[in-house]
Design a protein that fits this description.
493 residues; mainly beta; Neuraminidase; seven-stranded mixed β-sheet; five-stranded mixed β-sheet; 3 helices; globular
Length: 493
């Protein structure tokens, strides 16, 4: 197996294309999620580097053969690290760019700089994506007009996807004069469900239809609270809220947008926002990419629920994942209809909010190169409590096909003589939160960072990456054996 958003129209869209309708499936609704059980594996962590920023949020590699690792912080910095964990430079500090970006760091948990990614042609001097980097961040609402607005009051906040180019003389420094705004969203102030992950498909190759297309997770922008979710936006195709969107940031469209939407499932649907790729999410803060048994790319999406359940979805183009009517498989708001013609695509796993499991965060498809029994596993975490979970990817594919759920396993985490949850092994944790975020380098080595600590952890796990430049194809379940440091690993319990 190989892996790997103008005004809002408040009306129902009465038809979808035949091709789109064919993508929807029906399945039963469960009364209870499958409860997590204890894993027989322990996740051993090692220190990669001490992070110098505040509120670390994302770990990304440029895939340029340099072996570097880049970490973003909500305070506005992206830091560049060498393969040995040495801090090389502050790649960019958005707090110093307010004059040309409107960067802001003052509204709730979705504040400041969030997720970022390098264009897949970052290392190709003959391509338009050469040295291009894309960031998602909060911006001052008075700075510019948003393409899409979603507000009921005077308090608003803006989120932006912006493009940058790295200096031609310093590979560890963004040239801030090159900044270009790609797209801007207006949401309700102090909104907890803003712009999440922005990422290119790392499994797409040059010539593939998905190559160079930027995905972004857009939350439902709801500040009314869990008991009053009805916004009229989520099950409405005319906007990007509560959606996964997909754009080509390097190709302008005829209507003047600074991007295009090639191949998107709603391009031909009257009144629909062409950016939309999949719909019906509450807070899909993170996602990652994998391939199913037929080689088709799926987005493993981690959607934070409201009062009851969190879920993991295998996201495919044009499908509807149910919010605001459904929370996981729970029919939470039966008076909130789905988009006409669509049906609820069920999650492949979910957990309820018992035992302080309040917010799911992902998450990658991984294997342990030293343990043939720990292959093709999806790892993710409870954002608040810090538990690290895993689930078998094939079980998730089977659950998608059969309308069932995969089993969730909770792992013990060890670091520096401590064991327990990820939050348990951190020093100086505020309120016991884990706040784990996952990422990997160009060799597939998997890292974890937390907003609560100054350490970047290496896990010893690997994930598949495109066109690896410095590792041998030794194969283990289709994955690549990469360099190892200090013995971090998944071990049998």
């Amino acid at each position: 197996m190989q892996f790997s958003l103008f005004s809002l129209q408040r009306r129902c869209l009465m038809s979808l294309s035949a091709a789109l309708l064919a993508s929807f499936t029906t399945a039963p609704v469960f009364s209870q999620p499958v409860a997590p059980v204890a894993s027989s594996y322990t996740l051993g962590l090692d220190q990669f580097s001490t992070h110098t920023g505040s509120r670390a949020i994302d770990v990304v590699a440029p895939h340029d053969g340099s072996g570097r690792v880049f970490v973003s912080a909500q305070s506005g910095e992206i830091f560049s690290y060498g393969a040995d964990g040495t801090l090389l430079n502050t790649f960019v500090d958005l707090a110093s760019t307010t004059a040309n970006t409107g960067f802001l760091d003052n509204a709730g948990s979705f504040r400041g700089l969030m997720y970022f990614d390098f264009h897949p042609d970052y290392d190709n001097p003959n391509a338009d994506g050469y040295r291009k980097v894309y960031t998602g961040f909060q911006s001052n609402p008075s700075f510019a007009t948003a393409e899409y607005s979603r507000t009921r009051g005077s308090s608003v906040v803006h989120y932006v996807i912006g493009e940058w180019q790295v200096s031609s003389t310093n590979a560890n420094q963004i040239d801030t004069s090159t900044y270009r705004e790609v797209i801007r969203f207006e949401m309700e102030g102090n909104n907890p469900h803003g712009l999440g992950e922005v990422a290119f498909n790392p499994l797409a190759k040059p010539g593939d239809a998905d190559y160079g297309l930027l995905y972004a997770a857009v939350g439902d922008a709801n500040t009314l609270g869990n008991s009053n979710p009805g916004s009229g936006y989520i099950q409405n195709l005319s906007n990007p809220f509560g959606k996964i969107i997909r754009i080509n940031p390097l190709e302008d469209t005829v209507n003047g947008a600074d991007y295009s939407t090639p191949g998107n499932p709603y391009n031909s649907v009257s009144g629909a926002a062409p950016e939309n790729y999949a719909i019906g999410f509450r807070d899909p803060q993170t996602f990652s990419f994998a391939k199913d048994n037929s080689g088709e790319t799926v987005l493993i999406t981690f959607d934070i629920g409201a009062s009851n359940r969190d879920e993991v979805d295998l996201v495919r183009a044009g499908q509807n994942y149910g919010w605001e009517r459904y929370e996981g498989t729970l029919d939470l708001n039966p008076d909130r209809p789905l988009v006409p013609g669509s049906t609820h695509a069920l999650p492949v796993l979910e957990y309820d909010h018992s035992q302080e499991r309040f917010a799911i965060i992902g998450g990658l498809l991984v294997s342990d190169p030293n343990n043939p029994d720990f292959q093709d596993q999806v790892i993710f975490s409870n954002l608040v409590g810090g538990e690290i979970f895993h689930a078998d990817f094939q079980e998730m594919l089977d659950a998608e096909a059969n309308g069932t759920q995969a089993q969730i396993y909770e792992m013990t985490v060890t670091f520096d003589g401590e064991s327990g949850t990820f939050a348990d092994v951190l020093d100086g944790v505020d309120g016991g939160r884990g706040d784990a975020r996952f990422g990997y380098d160009e060799n597939g080595n998997v890292y974890i960072v937390s907003k609560q600590t100054g350490v970047i952890f290496e896990t010893g796990l690997v994930t598949s990456v495109p066109e690896p430049s410095s590792i041998a194809l030794l194969g283990l379940g289709g994955l690549l054996l990469s360099r190892r440091r200090r013995g971090a690993r998944v071990i049998s319990g």
